[in-house]
Write a structure and sequence with these properties.
It contains one helix and seven strands. The strands form two sheets. Strands 4-3-6-7 form a four-stranded antiparallel β-sheet, with no helix packed on it. Strands 1-2-5 form a three-stranded antiparallel β-sheet, with no helix packed on it. The radius of gyration is 17 Å and the shape is globular. The termini are far apart.
């Protein structure tokens, strides 16, 4: 039993060592075009096997975007672009990015 627990613990540590969250998230909303741009930094060796996979955008605590990606743009990171109508001053956007190998980063944005 102790060996099994030790093996599981070591496996979990190995898995966590290879995955990591996005280092930086830059989100911008352009009211004129009603577009939300989410750029991120996530340095990896191969963006087709290690990438930001889960993208979630919450507006005032309600999920409005949930996407699963299968790769990222480059080995340095990538960008997602969404059309989001009807946002107004004071709205709070929570942007959550998940790495397919483990790791999560988020950014809160209050519209001006």
């Amino acid at each position: 039993m102790k060996r099994a627990l030790l093996a599981i613990a070591l496996l979990a540590l190995c898995f966590a060592a290879f995955g990591h969250a996005a280092a930086d998230i830059d989100a911008r909303y352009t009211a004129k075009t009603k577009t939300l741009s989410i750029a991120f930094t996530h340095n990896v060796k191969d963006p087709s096997t290690h990438f930001i996979q889960g993208i979630q955008v919450r507006l005032n605590d309600v999920t409005i975007i949930s996407q699963v990606a299968s790769a990222q743009d480059t080995a340095e990171g990538g960008q997602f672009l969404y059309r989001v109508p009807n946002l107004k001053k004071g709205d709070v956007l929570d942007i959550i990015l998940d790495c397919n190998k483990g790791g999560r980063n988020s950014r809160k944005m209050i519209l001006n």
